[in-house]
Amino acid sequence: MNISGSTRPIAILGSPLGHSLSPLMHNYLFRIAGLNNVYIPLEVNEKDLESAVIGLWSLGFLGANVTIPYKELIMDYLIDISEEARLIGAVNTLICSEQGFRGDNTDGKGFINSLLMEKDWRPYAKRAVIFGAGGSARAVCTALALNGTEEIAIVNRSLPRANDIRNNITAKVGAKVGVMLWEDRGLQDAISKADIIINTTPLGMEPKINAAPPINMEWLDQGQLVVDLIYNPLKTKLLEEASLRGCEVLNGLGMLIHQGVLSFKLWTGIEPPFEGLRDLLEKSLALDE
Predict the structure, then answer these.
(1) Which is the catalytic residue, given 47, 71, 172, 193?
(2) Percent over 70 (pLDDT), the chain
(3) In contact, 217 and 241? CB cutoff 8 Å
């Protein structure tokens, strides 16, 4: 990589960033696309977030990604926000303009693209169960609703955040969304009837690899798709057990790749070739084990 005075940098803002795969991914994409850009991780304290946004724009950064815990807070410091980002209630991508940064969110579309391209699975008229009610759940739920999912159940430890997602999507998209607690008696029925079950919680992530959402594997059957947004490990306890039940399974690495490719296109106008990207990221994850 040859960095010069004409190199346009792009950053990722968040905290912590030590294990982020985004710098590896985007610098690889810049290289194979032949672009004079560099992607750098910048850990930022919450009190400095507004100054960081102003500073990046003043220094000529082409854009940025935003990750935990600033996807919602950063919306206050942007000049414009896309309709999908407003629906999700979070921003993961900043795009430079003459007046400042615009905000968008590629998480939801990245999730849908991973389903289409890796499993040839389409959400239209399907039933979904989503575990968790954080930012990832909000993006996934919104994307499913926008793509015609017939019924969505959000399962969470507590109801307030789940209700907030349901109310937002019901009001703005019109999809049928229900909520339930982990111990709800209707959980078995919801999972048994679902076409897709999605874990958006950190249960099963390193180092707590033996944890999983409260799913009795006897509720699952062949033909269902079980998705875990975790990609470290690549095959969580949930995916291992679901696979033994004959379910199709998918980890979160595809969503990471596809949301990254969408961000890349927003910055550059180019959709990069990314055939070797999964192998690169999987090798990096294996080295970290």
Answers:
(1) 71
(2) 99
(3) yes
The CA distance from 26 to 120, in Å, is: 25
pLDDT digits (tens, 9 = 90+) for 80-114: 999 999 999 999 999 999 999 999 999 999 999 99
Gyration radius from the chain CA atoms: 19
Name the CATH topology of 8-105+255-288.
Rossmann fold (3.40.50)
The domains of the chain are located at: 8-105+255-288, 108-251
CB atoms within 10 A of CB 256: 23
C-alpha closest to that of 165 among 194, 197, 131, 191: 131
Catalytic residue list contains 71: yes
Secondary structure (3-state) at 58: helix
Q: Give the number of C-alpha atoms closer than 13 A to the C-alpha of residue 145, restricted to the C-beta side.
A: 27
Between CA 259 and CA 30 the distance in angstroms is: 15
SS3 per residue for 84-141: HHHHHCCCCEEEECCCCEEEECCHHHHHHHHHHHHHCCCCCCCEEEEECCCHHHHHHH
Q: Which of 26, 32, 25 is nearest to 9 (CA)?
A: 26
What CATH superfamily classification does 108-251 receive? NAD(P)-binding Rossmann-like Domain (3.40.50.720)
Please state the pTM of the whole predicted model.
0.94
